[in-house]
């Protein structure tokens, strides 16, 4: 709630370049930490402790906006990058394991509720952003001093950290034995025996073909979110109106996350949801390149509403479906590695937008986003029909017959986790 509005404020403050650079630092460190440490530390600390400790870095960053000191803003940004990597890896694992438990306890088919539960989580997440934006809109409308506004938001963030103590502990799945990696561009099999608790062993997922084919979509998600939070806010000059419009963005995102999360579990394919999300974004990009070229008429609020609505639909569909797809592929074997790796490419894309915001025109950004969105759709189609179903996680080999040979084993092959009061590995 507090961080979302604080991030949004950075490119609209009196120190917009410093703010954009500070957010860029967050996502660069975020990316680097996911590459090296977040999955490993989440295993070592446990999910709940990771969430509690890492959330403190959010409080520090928000508090750094009470009084502007560049060194404090940059320091808090660096620490938040570390904390965010741990926080979002632990969050992805917690929701995935909770879904596993829910399906097993209630006798449901595996992965039959992943879209809905991820949609509910993201819906609540964006609803809190909506409340934060409404509060910020009111506070700016009331002409309060900036230090008072961010003191209030810091207090709210502190309460959020305290509430994490109430989370029920969730035990991490454990992989044992050998990890086999098949590298398609080499004509031989390459087998590596790695300690499953080492940092390097966490990165082997980056060579898994199903994950590799998701990289364009993950990268696009990061770039598009960077564009939404870095390029769109400066187009709306009045701060009170800005946060009010982004409150509407949060409402649309929350509703779409829940509705399409539910639909993707039973009625429509995840691939179709991805395509709809890409189409929604592309329409807005095309309008910004042709009909609504910046700077925009500040009196036509309907333009801003249409822009944020279209971007919200695409953002919610890509985010919820990527979370669900990774949970389907890796939810029973290595969820921490999967969500940490997702954040590597997502945060790298977001960092790129923030760092280059002052140097690359919005038109070039839009052309780049359209190109990557198209590539993401193409790779998703190939993944779904040629490699692994986005809905069930089954490979073509599994669909054709039950026999499994060493040559078609994937990095995510592993033993299913039976989550109950006494967690065991079967």
The structural domain count equals: 1
CATH topology description:
Growth Hormone, Chain: A
Number of strands: 4
**Unreliable segments of 5+ consecutive residues:** 176-197, 401-426
Shape summary: globular
| Beta-strand percentage range | under 5%
Strands of the widest sheet, in order across it, are: 1-2
**Name of the CATH architecture:** Up-down Bundle
Mean pLDDT across the residues is 84
Label the structural class.
mainly alpha
- By DSSP (H or I, 4+ residues per run), the number of helices equals 16
The named CATH superfamily: MFS general substrate transporter like domains
- Give the N-terminus to C-terminus distance in angstroms: 40 Å
State the order of secondary-structure elements, H for helix, E for strand: HHHHHHHEEHHHHHHHHHEE
Query: Which value, in Å, is the CA radius of gyration?
Result: 21 Å
Share of helical residues: 55-70%
**Main sheet, how many strands, which sense, barrel?**
2 strands, antiparallel
Broad CATH class: Mainly Alpha
Describe the structure.
The chain is an all-alpha fold and 426 residues long. It has a single domain, classed as MFS general substrate transporter like domains (Growth Hormone, Chain: A). The chain is built from 16 helices and four strands. The strands form two sheets. It has a two-stranded antiparallel sheet. Helix 10 packs across helix 14 and helix 11 runs parallel beside helix 13. It is globular. The protein starts with a helix and ends with a strand. The C terminus is likely disordered.
């Amino acid at each position: 709630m507090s961080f979302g509005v604080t991030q949004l404020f950075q490119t609209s403050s009196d120190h917009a370049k410093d703010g954009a650079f500070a957010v860029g630092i967050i996502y660069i460190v975020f990316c680097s930490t996911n590459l090296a440490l977040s999955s490993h530390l989440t295993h070592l600390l446990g999910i709940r402790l990771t969430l509690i400790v890492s959330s403190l870095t959010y409080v520090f960053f928000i508090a750094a906006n009470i009084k502007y000191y560049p060194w404090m803003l940059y320091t808090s940004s660096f620490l938040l990058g570390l904390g965010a990597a741990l926080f979002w890896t632990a969050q992805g694992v917690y929701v995935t394991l909770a879904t596993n438990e829910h399906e097993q306890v209630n006798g449901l088919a595996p992965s039959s509720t992943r879209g809905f539960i991820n949609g509910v989580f993201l819906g609540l997440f964006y609803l809190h952003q909506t409340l934060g934006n409404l509060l910020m809109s009111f506070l700016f409308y009331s002409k309060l001093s900036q230090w008072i506004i961010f003191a209030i938001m810091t207090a709210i963030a502190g309460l959020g950290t305290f509430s994490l103590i109430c989370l029920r502990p969730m035990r991490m799945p454990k992989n044992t034995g050998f990890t086999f990696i098949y590298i398609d561009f080499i004509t031989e099999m390459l087998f590596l025996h790695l300690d499953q608790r080492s940092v390097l062993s966490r990165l082997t997922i980056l060579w898994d073909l199903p994950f590799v084919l998701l990289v364009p979509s993950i990268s696009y998600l990061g770039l598009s979110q960077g564009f939404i939070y870095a390029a769109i806010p400066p187009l709306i000059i009045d701060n009170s109106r800005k946060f009010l419009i982004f409150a509407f963005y949060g409402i649309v995102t929350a509703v779409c996350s829940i509705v399409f999360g539910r639909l993707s579990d039973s009625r429509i394919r995840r691939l179709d949801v991805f395509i709809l999300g890409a189409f929604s974004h592309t329409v807005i990009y095309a309008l910004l390149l042709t009909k609504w070229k910046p700077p925009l008429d500040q009196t036509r609020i309907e333009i801003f509403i249409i822009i944020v609505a279209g971007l919200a639909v695409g953002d919610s569909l890509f985010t919820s479906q990527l979370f669900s797809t990774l949970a389907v592929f890796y939810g029973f074997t290595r969820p921490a590695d999967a969500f940490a790796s997702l954040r590597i490419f997502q945060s790298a894309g977001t960092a790129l937008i923030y760092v280059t915001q002052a140097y690359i025109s919005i038109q070039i950004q839009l052309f780049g986003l359209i190109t990557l969105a198209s590539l993401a759709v193409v790779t998703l189609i190939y993944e779904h029909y040629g490699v692994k179903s986005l809905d069930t996680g089954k490979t073509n080999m599994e669909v054709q017959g039950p026999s499994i040979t060493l040559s078609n084993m994937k990095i995510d092959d592993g033993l299913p986790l039976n989550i109950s009061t006494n967690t065991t590995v079967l």
